[in-house]
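Tokens for chain A. Residues wanted.
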């Protein structure tokens, strides 16, 4: 089923997903605004917006990384 570059790409994607899941990034992205609101330090919307921008950028960066590294 997976041969050559497909095995390499699949491995990279699986390892990236394991790293994200293990780091708690998904939990922080989901509940970070609630935590910030309880602390009453800054606007939770600003935190959620900046988190979304960072996650989008990192997702695109990971996709490019997988594509380029998978070609070799």
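Reply:
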């Amino acid at each position: 089923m997976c041969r050559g570059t497909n095995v390499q790409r699949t491995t990279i994607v699986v390892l990236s997903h394991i790293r994200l899941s293990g780091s708690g990034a998904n939990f922080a992205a989901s509940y970070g605004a609630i935590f910030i609101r309880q602390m009453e330090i800054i606007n939770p919307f600003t935190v959620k917006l900046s988190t979304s921008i960072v996650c989008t950028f990192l997702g695109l960066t990971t996709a490019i990384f997988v594509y380029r590294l998978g070609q070799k």
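The radius of gyration is 16 Å. The mean pLDDT is 79.
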